[in-house]
From TrEMBL:
Taxon lineage: Bacteria, Pseudomonadati, Pseudomonadota, Gammaproteobacteria, Pseudomonadales
Residue span(s) of domain HTH gntR-type: 4-71
InterPro entries: GntR_C (IPR011711), TF_FadR/GntR_C (IPR008920), Tscrpt_reg_HTH_GntR (IPR000524), WH-like_DNA-bd_sf (IPR036388), WH_DNA-bd_sf (IPR036390)
UniProt entry keywords in alphabetical sequence: DNA-binding, Transcription, Transcription regulation
Entry protein name: GntR family transcriptional regulator
Keyword field contains Cell wall biogenesis/degradation: no
């Protein structure tokens, strides 16, 4: 029982790292290194990794090394399309159900995001983590656990790609484009406007996706960069 609990804890930590974009596409991972970083033995890490491989959040190559999957442009577009529909629906429902306490929490996360953005050299990891916190704080209000589970599984796949949208020095970060989208999301919740909440989340997702596709960091099926 203790080993199963430890394995579940390791799984949760690795899952959060992926969803928060703290691992890069193509990054190779070592069971031993991960175990040392988490302060556990290799066994629970191996069990957690096998779960993530089954969920296609990680992949195991023929020579047994583990890596974060490299996403193709077509996969990215498909996931983006699904996210736009599901996350927009969750945001709309959240605008109908949001409580004063939940709104205070969301505004706190948004303020921390904007504060980080205001720095001369924003911390990329903090921006990515706060972005994830804000989105899921909103989606949790919708009280749609099945939908949220699907969204979480998509973020397991998409999280590492979000590195490219929130990397320090990009034009979108310099212009604080993401903060503007987030302000629209929070404002719609304040107004309890489901249509505006849905649209603001969808605009946020689509804007980031368009930028990532333009960077050429994704690949097409023949292994060439997607332009």
């Amino acid at each position: 029982m203790a080993r199963q609990t430890l394995s579940a804890d390791v799984y949760t930590q690795l899952r959060d790292l992926l969803m928060s974009g703290r691992m890069m596409p193509g990054e190779k991972l070592s069971l031993r290194s991960m175990a040392e970083a988490l302060g556990v033995s290799v066994m629970p890490v191996r069990e957690a990794v096998h779960r993530l491989v089954a969920e296609q959040a990680l992949e195991m190559a023929a020579n047994r090394y583990i890596r974060v999957p490299i996403m193709t442009a077509s996969q990215f577009r498909e996931i983006t399309s699904i996210r736009i529909n599901l996350e927009g629906q969750a945001a709309a429902r959240a605008a109908e159900l949001v409580s004063p306490a939940a709104l205070v929490e969301i505004e706190s996360i948004h303020n921390a995001f904007c504060k980080e953005f205001a720095k001369a050299a924003p911390d990329e990891s903090s921006l990515i983590s706060l972005n994830k916190q804000l989105h899921f704080a909103i989606y949790s209000i919708a009280d749609m656990p099945i939908l949220q589970g699907i969204v979480e599984s998509l973020w397991l796949r998409i999280g590492p790609i979000l590195n490219y949208d929130l990397r320090s020095g990009s034009e979108r970060v310099v212009q604080r484009v993401q903060a503007g989208h987030h302000e629209g999301m929070v404002g719609a919740l304040r107004d309890r406007d489901p249509v505006a909440a849905c649209k603001s989340v969808q605009n946020d997702i689509q804007s980031a996706a368009d930028f990532i596709l333009e960077t050429g960091v994704l690949i097409v099926s023949d292994g060439k960069p997607a332009l």
